[in-house]
Design a protein that fits this description.
166 residues, mainly alpha, Ferritin, 83% helix
Length: 166
């Protein structure tokens, strides 16, 4: 799709966010199953439902624009999640270390989503699409909260991983 306008750029970003959220909703249950920290399991399980809510919000934004989302490949998100799945499959890793690695990659995904939602929200607001901007802001805040949750869990898990190695 050629980028001739800010609306085109917004649509491209929304398609990437949509594809990323769809992929996240598929991968998170797998990550939750291999996480050993009960707190991490709970957080990852909760994010699956949030990802589905964000998909619905993006679909709502597309409806507002009289468009349908296109199933593009979110290469950045997919690559990060594929890395996470490889880490999850490492049976030889110490539990705390694997959990710490899962958190690190999950936070990479969060940061990518934060950037994407932040840009999309700003562009929607500038285009006068205030309802869409509000929906995108809600998703942005969920992503920021998820990142903060992961940081709190990581502070404990990283220390436990280091202590386990000593």
């Amino acid at each position: 799709m050629p980028l001739k306008s800010m609306k085109d750029l917004l649509v491209q970003q929304l398609n990437e966010l949509y594809a990323g959220e769809k992929h996240i909703a598929q991968v998170l249950p797998k990550l939750a199953r291999v996480a050993t920290s009960p707190r991490l399991k709970d957080v990852l399980d909760g994010y699956e439902d949030q990802a589905k809510d964000r998909v619905r919000r993006i679909e709502s934004v597309f409806d507002e624009m009289d468009l349908k989302p296109k199933r593009t490949e979110a290469k950045g998100t997919k690559g990060l999640l594929d890395d996470c799945l490889k880490l999850a499959a490492m049976d030889s890793a110490e539990d705390h270390v694997r959990d710490a690695a899962l958190i690190a990659v999950a936070q990479h995904v969060q940061h990518d989503a934060i950037a994407g939602y932040g840009c999309a929200k700003t562009w929607a607001r500038l285009l006068g699409m205030n309802d869409a901007a509000d929906d995108l802001h809600r998703s942005l805040m969920e992503e920021r909260n998820a990142d903060a949750d992961l940081t709190r869990i990581a502070e404990d898990l990283n220390l436990a991983a280091i202590e386990a190695a000593v």
